[in-house]
Amino acid sequence: MSISTDKKNRLRKRVKIFSAILKLALLLVILIGLPLYIYFFHHDLIQRFSSAENIEAFFNDYKAQSVFIYMGSQILQIVICIIPGQWLQFAAGYMYGFWLGYLYSLIGAFLGSVITYYVAKILGHDAMHLIFGEEKIKKMLVTLNSKKAVVLVFLIFLIPGVPKDLCNYVAGLSEMKLKPFLIVSLIGRSPGMMGSLLIGRQIHTGGYISAAIIAAVAVVLCILGVVFRKKLTVFLDKAYEKLMRI
């Protein structure tokens, strides 16, 4: 009886390891394989998104479907982290205007964040346990599930130039709830989105001075955020407590 139980336990362990390896392989395909495939075999796709002018020309070829292509590009940019998102938003600013561009950008960011969050949650846990061991993962989760983690997530999405989209995968590995993560990340993304959309709109209408002013204001706000980071942290801690009740 004990031998049979022992065999079953060994079999379960092997199945668990095999499942973890398979999930890890799928995660690596999404995170590394797809970007490498696009870079080496479809580099023209990256070129199409390398400037606002190229994006506008590409979207003009598919005017009827351009909104869906834009939102799909926004999703793809978040999921595989290879398409430059800044140019997308510049182009959206002068193609759709500020408010419609912001709406389409938010929808794309929302869907992309949900996809990456669940991809990591479904495929990531077993794979991470296999690589680092359950004890280390538990320690990591303590940090990721703390108030500071939410503040960190907000700042990552808020500060321009910081790689943001891998953060979606990290959040999926943690026990952070989806709703608070989406609220914090989308609010954090919004100033950068709005700035890019406004600059794109102003450049399209010839308002280069206005575009420069918007960029300068964004830099000043970023500096103020660093200077008053302690007060911002206190505010975010209170917001975190409310969000976790959602």
UniProtKB/TrEMBL annotation:
Cleavable signal peptide: none
Ranges for domain VTT: 83-201
Domain of life: Bacteria
Protein's UniProt name: TVP38/TMEM64 family membrane protein
Regions that span the bilayer: 21-40, 99-120, 140-159, 206-228
Compartment(s) where it occurs, according to its Swiss-Prot or TrEMBL record: Cell membrane
Naturally occurring in which organism (per UniProt): Lentihominibacter hominis
InterPro entries assigned: TMEM64, VTT_dom
Topological type in the membrane: Multi-pass membrane protein
